[in-house]
Amino acid sequence: MNEKINFKENEFGYIEYKSKNPYEFYQIFNELDEAETQDSFGWLIFPEQGKKPYPVVVCAHGSDNWAGHHHEHILNFLNNGIAVFKAHSFDSRGVSATVEDQLSVTTAMMMVDVVEPLKFLSRHPDIDANKIAITGWSLGGMVAFYAAWEPIMEKLAPNGERFCAHLPFYPPTFLNPDEHRWSKAPILNLIGSKNQGLSMVVGKAISWSALLMPLPFILSITVWFADGSSTWLTSALVFGLLIFGFIFAINSSLHSYLILAFGDTDRITRDVGFYYMANAAGRLIGTLLSGLSYQFGGLACCLAVAGLMTFLSWFTAKKLKHT
């Protein structure tokens, strides 16, 4: 796909290349040739001090795009004489982040984005083709980890190009393939000082749902006993709803993680799609119920119904302990 990309000595900087847009691993295995071609780009950075040919690390960012702590690690690589290739998977597709929409740029797309540089950088006269490693953070860490899975690399790099090392930072490694054939290159998963796994996240989802539940009921009671509209009531409602919105956002992020963790390995994009469909259906039902409850009993009734829905969310989350 990028066979025409060739380099001269001391050539570095901005590089444009072709990638693909498979939505999931299934498409990589079965429909890669039919997947949409994507114009991608990245930056090749050489260290100020080092010995040629340089080792190089292909870097993949997380769901919130490139961040400051990524560049701190990149600077460490450069200071140790290691070149860096920054793949811009999101910017290439006009996406700033995927925190709220994991379907806009998927793991499968980013897999192609990092394997193509592996192939064309191996032809660079200033790079050691046997010392091209990969690292990534969060979503990018997942990419760095599964780039060690031989079946998918055989599809993406059929001529045998392989990363010499894998350094994923806090990667979500919940996809458990049936065929366990992995690279013999070193793999180091850095997950922090303590990792309690999925059960910890489930516990947090239940706890944050419990925190969310009483707020609408408290606001409903406040409105019910208030003597008409007043400045203090308006202030109380605004303050209470701001707290509700903050806790709701944390619940949303936990649920986004859990749908990935509990999803079917072979069709993860399908499961995430159903999650967003359910999310949209919930918003529609919420909009209808808010209008009907307001017509029936005013703002107090509307808030009470919201409390009932948060109770159902908490009650459902508790069932995850038995999954």
Describe what this molecule looks like in 3D.
- This protein has 323 residues and is α/β, with parallel strands linked by helices.
- It folds into 2 domains: 13-169, Rossmann fold (3-Layer(aba) Sandwich); 197-322.
- Helices cover 50% and strands 14% of the residues.
- It contains 10 helices and 6 strands; from the N terminus they run βαββαβααβααβαααα.
- The protein has helices at residues 25-30, 68-79, 89-92, 107-121, 139-146, 150-156, 197-212, 214-225, 231-262, 268-318; strands spanning 13-20, 37-45, 54-60, 83-87, 127-137, 166-169.
- It has a 6-stranded mixed sheet with strand order 1-2-4-3-5-6, with helices on both faces.
- Strand 3 (54-60), helix 2 (68-79) and strand 4 (83-87) form a beta-alpha-beta unit.
- Helix 8 (214-225) packs antiparallel against helix 9.
- The protein is elongated, with a radius of gyration of 24 Å.
- 30% of the residues are buried.
